[in-house]
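call fold(seq) -> tokens
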Amino acid sequence: MRTIKIKLEYGCFPLWLYDEEGLFVDNRLPHKSIQNRNAVKVAFVKVQEIYEKLFVNSDTEFSYIGFDSEEQKAEFTDAFNNAVNLLNRTVGDKYNIVNTVDFEKL
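ret:
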């Protein structure tokens, strides 16, 4: 079965596609024919936008700064859980979904 890994990397879409043999295919949403594809994309774009605000990225510095507040962390957690639940409802029977995000490290 094909796999979708949910991984957060600065500058990358959070869904990582792997084929049946476990080889990386692409960093994008699965096939265009998947129902609710746009809703899943929007949900994960929001997650990525919040995640990237956790970093300073300038000409002279790239560093992790973390959440400004517990409210910001709660917003991220809600957005992330919403996106994952939508993904599971949308493609859960077609892909093995692996969540690699460790909230303790954020």
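The radius of gyration is 14 Å.
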